[in-house]
Amino acid sequence: MTVVDTGAPPAGDAAPSPARRPARRRGILGVLGKNPAGLLFSTPYLAFVLVVFAFPLGFAVWISFHDYFFAAPGADVDRPFVGLDNYTSVLSDPDVRRSFVNIGIFLLINVPLTVLLSLVLATLLNQVVRARTFLRVAFYVPYVTASVAVVGVWLFLFSGNGLVNEVLGPLAPDPPWLINSFWAMPSIAFFVTWKQLGFYILLYLAALQNVPRELYEAAATDGAGRLRTFRSVTVPAVRPATVLVVLLATITGANLFTEPYLLTGGGGPNGASASPVLIMYQRGIEQGSPGVAAAIGVILVLLVLLVAWLQRRFVGGGES
Amino acid sequence: MQRRTRVAAALTAAAGLFTVAACGGDDETSGGGGGEDGGRGDITIWYSNNEAEVAWGQQMVEAWNAENPDEQIEAQEIPAGASSEEVIGAAITAGNAPCLIFNTAPVAVPDFERQGGLVSLSSFDDGENYVEERSGDIAEQYRSPGGEYFQLPWKSNPVMIFYNKDMFAAAGLDPENPPLGTYDEFLATARTLVSSGAAPKAIWPAPTSEFFQNWFDFYPLYAAETGGTALVEDGAATFTDDAGLGVAEFWKTLYDEGLASREAYQGDSFADAQAAMAIVGPWAISVYGENVNWGAVPVPTSAGTPAEETYTFSDAKNIGLYTACENQATAWDVLKFATSEEQDGLLLEMTGQMPVRQDLPGTYPDYFSANPAYEAFGDQAARTVEVPNVPNAVAVWQTLRDAWSQSVIFGEGDVEESLQGAADEIDGLAGQS
């Protein structure tokens, strides 16, 4: 027997009146949304964000206004409110100010270089027919290799009697790259650009897959050369990816720690490569002043948000 | 909705920047008490992770456990981390520090004490007596500003100048009586070593910015030059005197003339024959012993102080008893057992490191006669200077290192001005409670 679902309620059910039913559903949907199951699926990540990011964020802001230090459970310690003292201390500390200048230099080199190289290389890789997988892997390997291991290679290359200076001969800087006050930070910026390039190339490769072939065909029909096609078709077509690359490169760059810690022996020479996060580590973990470290963190986040906002304003970022 | 999503994404990304600074713990649960009422039972300990010390630790634990079936020790190597001080600090905050840690750096003790992580050994009835009877006058350096002992002085590695006899011979220098007693002699020897081509560098201390690096260039020479003055005394920096400036000028000359390297060496420059000298403690004997034809002399002074009067940096590691320990009475007994004359003798034999005991050569004459290489270090152990036990000790050393790095290693600015600036800052740091 075939049962035809008419959509009518079973006989005998006390069906809600047509006037009341939509009103109750609106109330539930108002809380849970149109797809309540989505909330269930997103709960673990939401919990993760709250515990791992949101709580530390709020806690760090709280710490930055107190004379805080880590203590044993049950220890009778005083952590008084100190207002803006930590911020005053941070802003009057020449080491901290210098670290912000250092990271500014880093970002000015790293971000444009990352965008340019990853876009050009992704475009070339997208056109390669032979050994495509090998080349993609070759660019990606530095990104997934531990910094500690890769740093060893760069130390070998850029030391006073390293390969780079051997090749450059009299053109090599004196003192050598990583202990040269002028070159230390640019050297780190080049290293980080090279190391992370594989990740950004992947982002661009994904974006390039979505560029309609017709655009290239139209450009070819109009007689556009490769450079003109790149400028007029590829660059505008991957603009959303460019915005993402700029944002990610800025945020990861602002978090710079491992490279100055390992490449230049803890921010040398003479503080020329110290980053704000490295100073946070020194003050917060090594020297037991989490309040000062948190104040540096708050300032850093505000500056990153400002830079991201400026980038969005002048580079773009709204959905086209 | 899209705008909200973007704002949320930006905040989420920004929040990532905070995780370093926001790893706090709560302070709601109770920690252990202090003194001999702390209870008896099983305890946990951590010891260092170098091979020789692990072997010593294991035999010590076996010896104790065999005699104390109701109060067993569970031992493990200190967990890996950026440094043992950071691991211990994190364990204190988390409330899971072991009862005893055999490798507590004296520089970290003021911070651990401030964290409420350490039990005062003075709170035990025989605490003060035990520390002072074992270590003698040198124990005073380990007393906290509040007048108590929060660490047991355990072992030291008095640093001296190791030199490569083969390189010295190749440079035409007398390898058995090297001219290294005064600054002038040392500099002349260094110039000969490098100009002759016998050694790429005369000496190669780490030129990096870590706070502890001044323990292996400036501080031993300052201790020797001043006859045992600590970096900070009575809450004020001491090193802007003629002695400190003389030591700084001595090192600056080495860097300026390329006799010491401004670049960090990846590895051990002395073991790799890239430097003819190194400033190291006796732990290195077992490392260099068979690979390098080495000799050892005290660090130089401006006037050439006799060896038997020369001071140096101790590079000591001590034992801390932590408040997270429930069975503190047992822990105190274990601490005394592990630093008994018998166990100290075994430590000396198995690691070559010097127990911080009174009259070390006289206590273990057989060992020193059988191991003459260690004799000078044993004698030197009686004249060592420790890092000052002051508040903000790590910040104090980082301040000095920054100034040293700027003016001495990289030669930027005036040395005296730079060190005076560091001293002024250190006065403020060390004076804080």
UniProtKB/TrEMBL annotation, chain A:
The keyword Ion transport does not apply. Pfam families: BPD_transp_1. It comes from the Bacteria. It is found in: Cell membrane. Residues 7-20 have a biased composition (Low complexity). One of its GO terms (cellular component) is plasma membrane. CDD domains: TM_PBP2. Keywords: Cell membrane, Membrane, Sugar transport, Transmembrane, Transmembrane helix, Transport. GO terms for biological process: transmembrane transport. The chain crosses the membrane at residues 45-65, 100-125, 137-157, 177-205, 237-257, 291-310. Residues 100-311 form the ABC transmembrane type-1 domain. It is a multi-pass membrane protein. The keyword Chaperone does not apply. Residues 1-21 are annotated as: Disordered. Belongs to the binding-protein-dependent transport system permease family. PANTHER family: ABC TRANSPORTER PERMEASE PROTEIN (PTHR30193), DIACETYLCHITOBIOSE UPTAKE SYSTEM PERMEASE PROTEIN NGCF (PTHR30193:SF41). This is Multiple sugar transport system permease protein. The lineage of its organism: Bacteria, Bacillati, Actinomycetota, Actinomycetes, Jiangellales.
TrEMBL record, chain B:
It holds the Pfam family SBP_bac_1. GO terms for molecular function: maltose binding. One of its GO terms (biological process) is maltose transport. Keywords: Signal, Sugar transport, Transport. InterPro entries: SBP (IPR006059). GO terms for cellular component: ATP-binding cassette (ABC) transporter complex, substrate-binding subunit-containing. The keyword Metal-binding does not apply. Residues 1-24 form the signal peptide. Belongs to the bacterial solute-binding protein 1 family. This is Multiple sugar transport system substrate-binding protein. It comes from Jiangella mangrovi. The lineage of its organism: Bacteria, Bacillati, Actinomycetota, Actinomycetes, Jiangellales.
